[in-house]
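User: For a reading group we're discussing how well predicted structures match intuition. Take Small ribosomal subunit protein uS4c. Before you show the prediction, I'll give you the sequence so everyone sees exactly what went in.
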Amino acid sequence: MSRYRGPRFKKIRRLGALPGLTSKRPRPGGYLRRKKSRFRKKSQYRIRLEEKQKLRFHYGLTERQLLRYVHIAGKTKGSTGQVLLQLLEMRLDNILFRLGMASTIPGARQLVNHRHILVNGRIVDIPSYRCKPQDIITTRDKQRSRALIQNHIDSSPRKNKKWVNHLTFRPSQYKGLVKQIIDRKWVGLKIKELRVVEYYSRQT
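Assistant: Thanks. Here is the predicted 3D structure of Small ribosomal subunit protein uS4c, as structure tokens, for the group to look at:
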């Protein structure tokens, strides 16, 4: 299954807020009232499927990529669900989004693909690159690269908010630091990761 490129509001209405997919919010209105009127009790399968879809669309993954991360998390010591979230959060495209260097994860992926981003002084053009503690994230010393990042910083609704605890960002230097592996309580996405693990355990 390929990466989703369809209407983003459609997914937000169905699954709830997905800040990594889009920074925009749907207008409140009649849709919500209509949705309540046809509310039906969800099956356990549907609950697990929706939790899986939240992860997939928020982080911008294909079905195959998410399944691979689940397998890696299952082989890693610790809670499979928490390890899964940590693996996804430490992706380079997500780190850029968290730092405010991109307004969405697809936008961060484009920055990486176009070779605007350096990790520890070296160009990295793989959005799924797994960052590690003490990694330094910067932009290339080019006017266009810095202009793109500055535009995202200026327009980001998070620019006046406190950065998440596992990251440090210096906007004036276009420089971010990964201080440590993210803790579950800092993820900020309303997700029941155990449901995702259960979904894939029943598929294999």
